Amino acid sequence: RDTVAELLSSVCKDVETEPQLLSVPPTLTLPNGTNRQDGARLDVSARSFWSTLDRAFVDVRVLHPQAPSNSDKSISQMYAAHEISKKREYNQRVLDVEKASFTPLVFSTTGGMANEASCFLKHLAEKICMKKGQRYSDVMAFIRRRIRFDLLRTCIISIRGFRGTKTQSPSAISDLDLNLVNAC
Fold first, then answer.
1. Once rounded to an integer, what is the mean pLDDT over residues 69-95?
2. Which residues lie closer than 8 Å to 110 by C-beta, 6 or more apart?
3. Distance CA 9, CA 14 (A)
4. Are 95 and 83 in contact (CB under 8 A)?
5. Starting at the edge strand that comes first in sequence, how are the strands of the sheet with 101-108 ordered?
6. Which of 118, 122, 151, 157 is most deeply packed, by most CB within 10 A?
7. pLDDT tens-digit series, residues 38-73
8. Helix (H) or strand (E) holding 155
């Protein structure tokens, strides 16, 4: 979540982590399974991502493909099931109440991602390319590598626990030059 927010803040306006959603009016009918709780939150919101001044909400889910609950599904079925679950829970509420777009970002602990997450990251890479003048391949490789290392770090912490003091945080994404080859 924090990596996605940091990446978005380099190209979007009004980026918030865990923004609180507006209350659902009692007269509004939403499909079954929609989260209607007051104080519900999504992981990240940003303005001007998909289109100018529109607000986009993102919610991140990480799945473990070798979990017993996933034993009878292919990897594409796992991704689709988790995307559908997130959309069922938040999509209609975000569209009707927030008047915004919703994108579920589903990643696996093995480093893969669902279709919508892939489209989201490709669009994000294009925006970063245009803003910073970097090559698309360098930006996309950086984003994928950064997310995979964050997933790996999260998995290791969940297995062995956090030990010791907090280490220095990685360099701010906005300060990095992704074209690693010097121009001659």
1. 89
2. 65
3. 8
4. no
5. 13-17, 44-47, 55-63, 101-108
6. 151
7. 888 888 999 989 988 899 999 999 888 888 888 888
8. helix 136-160
The dihedrals phi and psi of 122, each to the nearest 5 degrees, come to -65, -45
Tokens of 129: 């390319």
Among 66, 65, 135, which residue's Cα sits nearest to residue 107?
65
Query: What is the token pair recorded at 90?
Result: 């938040």
pLDDT tens per residue, range 116-151: 999 999 999 999 999 888 899 999 999 998 888 888
Whole-angstrom distance, CA of residue 58 vs CA of residue 117: 10
**How far apart (Å, rounded) are the C-alpha atoms in residues 90 and 97?**
10
φ, ψ dihedrals at 143, nearest 5° = -60, -50
Compute CA 66 distance to the chain's CA centroid, rounded to the nearest angstrom.
22
The model's pTM is 0.80
